[in-house]
Design a protein that fits this description.
120 residues; mainly alpha; 6 helices
Length: 120
């Protein structure tokens, strides 16, 4: 399911501007993108459907119904992107991100610093 969300998100990410509502416009103009998309779908299908590979990955093959469900859930990414593009950007005009550098103490106590220490 995650892979199908990712594949549909790749299609969604081709059009980032708010006025670019139709993510399918010009989809077939980029052969390289379609090849990558096709390879992603083929490998995912092979991983799940080919018994030897599926056994190594500890998966069982999906039925057509299950594939339909994963595709529908994946397509929800397109719908979510459409809804997000309908939200006016001016609603977020007052949001600010504080980008002051961290003090040494703040950096030492940060989550990233703690995670780095745990892997040493």
């Amino acid at each position: 399911m995650y892979v199908m969300l990712q594949i549909f998100n790749e299609v969604n990410a081709k059009k980032l501007l708010p006025q670019e509502i139709n993510v399918f416009a010009g989809l077939f103009n980029n052969a390289f993108f379609l090849i990558i998309l096709g390879i992603s779908i083929a490998f995912q299908t092979a991983f799940v459907q080919i018994k030897g590979v599926a056994a190594i990955m500890k998966m069982k093959p999906l039925t057509w119904t299950e594939y339909g469900i994963t595709m529908a859930i994946g397509f929800s990414c397109i719908l979510f992107g459409f809804v997000i593009k309908l939200i006016p950007l001016r609603w977020f005009g007052n949001l600010q991100i504080k980008e002051d550098p961290l003090t040494d103490e703040q950096e030492a106590n940060s989550l990233v610093s703690k995670l780095r220490k745990s892997h040493r």
